[in-house]
């Protein structure tokens, strides 16, 4: 068996980070870690300092677990062996420098994804497509912030042929420094909606913050934008000012370069005929929902921009699976039958709620079954919170949902707006709501669970799983804490 190529050699890492080696160890690292709980032997360990924990407290543990080296910004007392300790001025800055060095040495075709909704699913879709065409490196889980992006860069192998990076934000001026590190040759903005609106004065400001992704775009690169979104022209202008050589719009619009010609939305898949930058393509999507169809257009436009094979990409989409907590479908066996749970518990906003309600409406229940929505608070909506929650009434009724279970003070606005016939139960918290949902579920039901991460809707998911035996579980990626 061939010896694996190291991710980083000691001499290269020391130069990249402008570090001082306290010993003479000549080590090789095969990974980069910031968390001793998931650290593997041979990883570099960065002792990052955060609000709740200081990585310097875990340096000895990292070395005991087999870390190739540890990166610190202050001396650690009582270490038996300091030969693999690297001293830097600031561990986060050192991680950034290592990420920048990884980008500089790479010949990979790189793309970056942002957007108010759908960026993780789009990133995972691109990972799935490109892995069939070459060595592909992509962000793990939702590693899209000031730590996750440089960490993902630092983990990129030198022989990667494709790179897919997710970049997120909660405030203005957060995306720009991250995209400058990534330097994508194609950048996607999935859509712009009133998400994280409490930190902005208007949705136009969110569009501007998302448009920061073009500041790192390589000269002449491709900007891929939602042609159906009202902020398309605003983003197009920003991309042009940042030196984009090609601007691709995707959507239903006849003006879109990547557009839907026909689609058939089924309970467990979608069938699409589209035109992608002059190329006709027909494909099956393994994940249902019109919102996934829209994002698949952006994926295929990106594949085209990176020079990958569009036909192979279309074939790969049939095997697409949702990221953890973002649409995984789990059939759970009960006495006398089973019910289907759709796990959308990772996050929520009014746009994504409306999209999954439409997908729920396209999912037929079993014999004598019902469509049931279990929803928790959508956070970071600011002054739009009351209307945003009450406004879910329309997509819920349009999807022919039979029962709604809701929790959280903001979801009380929806509860008050719903007609009596669809009210299942309301509770203050997901922990209080979970047993009431469990009491109601019967064979044949389709149950969709969704809410912002802070609403802890995963507790409802766990309670439903514990009702019986999962028959079919969509594989989910384990998420390492950042």
Please provide a written account of the structure.
Mean pLDDT is 94; it is low at 473-482. The protein has 3 domains: 8-93, Udp-n-acetylmuramoylalanyl-d-glutamate--2,6- Diaminopimelate Ligase, Chain: A, domain 1 (3-Layer(aba) Sandwich), CATH 3.40.1390.10; 106-319, UDP-N-acetylmuramoyl-L-alanine:D-glutamate ligase (3-Layer(aba) Sandwich); 328-470, Alpha-Beta Complex (Protein-Tyrosine Phosphatase, Chain A). It is globular and about 70 Å long. It has helices spanning 10-17, 59-64, 91-105, 119-131, 148-154, 175-182, 203-211, 232-241, 290-305, 310-316, 350-361, 385-390, 393-398, 412-417, 430-440, 458-465; strands at residues 8-9, 20-21, 28-29, 31-33, 43-46, 69-72, 85-87, 109-114, 136-138, 162-166, 186-189, 222-226, 246-251, 258-265, 270-276, 279-285, 328-334, 337-344, 371-376, 403-407, 423-427, 446-450, 469-473. α4 crosses α9, α7 (203-211) packs parallel to α8 and α15 runs parallel beside α16. It is 31% helix and 23% strand. It is of the alpha/beta class. The strands form 4 sheets. Strands 9-10-8-11-12-13-14-15-16 form a 9-stranded mixed beta sheet, with helices on both faces.
């Amino acid at each position: 068996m061939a010896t694996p190529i190291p991710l980083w050699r000691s001499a290269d890492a020391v130069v990249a980070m402008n570090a001082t080696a306290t010993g003479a160890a000549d080590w090789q690292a095969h990974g980069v870690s910031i968390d001793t709980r998931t650290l593997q032997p041979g990883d570099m360990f960065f002792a990052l300092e955060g609000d709740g924990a200081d990585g310097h407290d875990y340096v000895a543990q990292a070395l005991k677990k087999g870390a190739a080296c540890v990166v610190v910004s202050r001396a650690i007392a009582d270490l038996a062996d300091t030969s693999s300790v690297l001293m830097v001025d600031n561990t986060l800055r050192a991680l950034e420098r290592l990420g920048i060095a990884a980008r500089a040495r790479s010949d990979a075709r790189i793309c970056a994804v942002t957007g108010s909704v759908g960026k993780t699913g789009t990133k995972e879709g691109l990972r799935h497509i490109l892995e069939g065409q070459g060595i592909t490196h992509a962000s793990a889980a939702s590693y899209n912030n000031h730590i996750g992006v440089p960490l993902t860069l630092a983990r990129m192998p030198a022989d990667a042929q494709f790179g897919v990076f997710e970049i997120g934000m909660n405030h203005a001026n957060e995306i720009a420094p991250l995209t400058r590190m990534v330097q994508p040759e194609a950048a996607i903005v999935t859509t712009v909606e009133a998400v994280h609106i409490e930190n902005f004065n208007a949705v136009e400001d969110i569009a501007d913050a998302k448009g920061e992704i073009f500041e790192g775009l390589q000269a002449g690169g491709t900007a891929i934008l939602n042609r159906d979104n009202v902020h398309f022209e605003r983003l197009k202008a920003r991309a042009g000012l940042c030196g984009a050589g090609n601007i691709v719009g995707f959507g239903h619009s006849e003006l879109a370069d990547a557009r839907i010609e026909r689609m058939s939305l089924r309970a467990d898949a979608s069938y699409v005929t589209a035109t992608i930058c002059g190329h006709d393509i027909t494909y099956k999507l393994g994940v249902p929902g019109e919102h996934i169809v829209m994002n698949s257009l952006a994926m295929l436009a990106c594949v085209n921009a990176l020079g990958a094979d569009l036909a192979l990409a279309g074939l790969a989409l049939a095997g697409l699976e949702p990221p953890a907590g973002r649409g995984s479908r789990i059939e759970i066996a009960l006495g006398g039958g089973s019910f289907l749970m759709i796990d959308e518990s990772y996050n929520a906003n009014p746009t994504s709620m409306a999209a999954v309600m439409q997908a729920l409406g396209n999912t037929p229940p079993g014999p004598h079954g019902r469509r049931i929505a279990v929803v928790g608070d959508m956070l970071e909506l600011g002054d739009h919170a009351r209307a945003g929650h009450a406004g879910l009434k329309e997509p819920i009724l349009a999807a022919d949902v039979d029962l709604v279970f809701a929790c959280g003070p903001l979801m009380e606005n929806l509860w008050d707006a719903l007609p009596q016939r669809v009210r299942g139960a309301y509770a203050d918290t997901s922990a209080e709501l979970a047993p009431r949902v469990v009491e109601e579920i019967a064979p044949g039901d389709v149950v969709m669970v969704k809410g912002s991460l802070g609403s802890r809707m995963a507790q409802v998911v766990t309670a439903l799983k514990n009702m019986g035996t999962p028959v079919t579980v969509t594989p989910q990626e384990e998420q390492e804490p950042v």
